[in-house]
Structure formats: structure tokens, C-alpha cells
Amino acid sequence: MASTFHMLILGALLFCAGIIVVIVKRNAIMVLLGIELMLNASNVNLVAFNQLYPERPSGQMFALFVIVVAVCEAAVGLAIVLRVYQYYKTSVPDEITELKD
Amino acid sequence: MNAAEIILYVFECVAALAAISLIFVRNVFYGALLMVICLLAIAGLYVLMFAEFIAVTQILVYAGGILVVIIFGIMLTSRISGKPLVVEHTRIFEGIICGVVFFGLLAYAFTTHQFDSGIFADGLTGQNIQSIGVLIMTDYALPFEITGILLLIALIGSAVVASVSKSKQG
Predict the structure, then answer these.
(1) What ipTM was predicted for this assembly?
(2) Is A41 within 8 Å of A21 (Cβ atoms)?
(3) Where do the H-state alpha helices sit in chain A?
(4) How far is A57 from chain B (nearest CA, A)?
(5) Tens of pLDDT along B28-86?
(6) Which residues of chain A have pLDDT under 70?
(7) Interfacial A residues in 37-56 facing B (CB < 8 Å)
(8) Do residue A19 and residue B99 have CB atoms under 8 angstroms apart?
């Protein structure tokens, strides 16, 4: 019981650290790192809850799908950050206020 | 307390400390390196929780793929302007309040509920990777194919977005 509780507390701490990074940092790449941290927190929770029902690894399957979606998010997000940086010469998300040329 | 529990606590502490110091670090490159440490510690935790396939996937995809792409992004966005990679902090009070309150809520919810068995359950040893492979090809075949198509679309789209279009600029 204690170990499951520790895993859940670790997942909550990773998620809250991700939230604070997303809110506080003024850089788009650091915001992406915070989002990756939050996705990892969800993975930790999925694998920890899978230990309570060990006859079928469904939680691990969902962790795999979360990893694939994280890959897609990182690729598309970094491509957008790169183009925005080439156009606006900044990577601060607060200063990018218009979409068209 | 046996050796496996001690290793589990060490990995937990490393992951938590790396995640917390990611809040305070101001250099983006150091942030990416802290993220690598955190992801490797979480992979060690997956091994201790009998999720070996997830652990290997975590090391290969996260620490080997996503972090390399993020470090490429850091180096490419710093080369254009020549400015240093120091990040400013904004809305510190709101961020700390939001994170601490949400963590308090989650910790309260976890302490008031009881969860059944321990982490070292004995049902998942041995046949784990084999059952994951069988499940991918039988019950989870449709989500597997859909995530494959999603990955293909995302990679083609990111390549199209990141490629320099000469006709627009000239």
C-alpha cells in the first residue's frame, strides 16, 4: 500500500511541477518541457494503478499510447516554435499576439 | 526495508528533485538535461514496477528521441539571434499558488482513499512483455493503427511546417 501511495504522490508532484513550469517560464521550449513532465506524471499514475490489477496490462498499453502522443506533440510543437522564432525573432509566448503576416 | 525498496526510494527522490529543480533553473539547456535525469529515474521506477517494456520505451523514445529533438530546437532557436538562453520568470505568485494548491488537493485525495495491494504484486512477473505484444495485436489493434496514422500525420506535418518555403519569402 505504501508503495502505491508513494507512486501517486510522485505523479502528483511531477504534474504540479509541470503546471508551475508551464505558467512561470517565459520560453516556449520550457513550456514544452513542462508539458512533457505532465504527460510523464500521467504515465507514472497509469503504471502504478496497473499494479493493483496485475492480471491484465491495460494500464501499460495506455502508457504506450501516451508516449506516442507525446512524441507527436513534441515534434509539431518544436516545428511551430522554430517557424515562430524565425518570423518573430522571439520565443516568448506572451509576445506573439497575431497569427497572420 | 529490503534493497528493492531502497532503490525505489532513491529513484523517486531523484525524479522529484529533478522535477522541482526544473522550476528554478533559468538556462534552457540545463532544463533539458534535468529533464533527461528525471526521465531516466522514472524509467528505473518502471523497471521496479515490473513494466520493463514501458521502461525501455521510455529510455528509447523520451531520453533518446524527444530530448534530442528539444536540444536541437534549443540550439536552432539560440543560433538565430545570438542571445543567451536565459529564461525570465513571470507570474511567479500565480504559478506557485496554482501548483501548490493542486498538489494539496491531490495529496488530500490520495490520503483519504485506501488502495488495495502493494506495488510488488506477483501477478505481473515474467509474461508481461509477451502479454503486451498479444494485446497490441488482438484487443488494442485499432488504437495501435490509429496511433500509427497519428504519428505519420504529425511527423509529415512538422516536416512541412519546419521546412523553409522560398516562394513565400521571395
Answers:
(1) 0.88
(2) no
(3) 2-24, 28-50, 58-88
(4) 7
(5) 888 889 999 999 999 999 988 888 889 999 999 888 888 888 888 888 777 555 565 67
(6) 1-2, 99-101
(7) 37, 40, 43-44, 47-48, 50-52, 54-56
(8) yes
Q: In whole angstroms, how far apart are CA B84 and each of A17, A91, B24, B88?
A: 24, 12, 17, 11
* Cα torsion through B120, B122, B125, B127, rounded to 10: -140
Report whether pLDDT(B170) > 50.
no
Mean pLDDT of all residues in chain B?
83
Angle (CA) A58-A63-A1 rounded to 5° is 70
C-alpha neighbours within 13 Å on the C-beta side of residue A3? 25
What H or E segment, with its residue span, contains residue B54? helix B52-57
Model-level pTM? 0.86
Spatial CB neighbours of B63, under 8 Å, sequence gap ≥ 6: B36, B39, B40, B43
User: Any idea what the Cα angle at residue B58 is, between residues B125 and B65, rounded to 5°?
Assistant: 155
Q: Which three cell numbers stand for residue B94?
A: 500565480
Distance from CA of A55 to the nearest CA of B (A): 6
Instruction: Specify the 3-state DSSP secondary structure of B26.
Output: coil
How far out from the chain centre does Cα B125 lie? 24
State the Cα–Cα distance between residues B54 and A65, nearest whole angstrom: 11
Write the single-letter amino acid at B143. P
Confidence of residue B133 (pLDDT cuts 50, 70, 90): confident
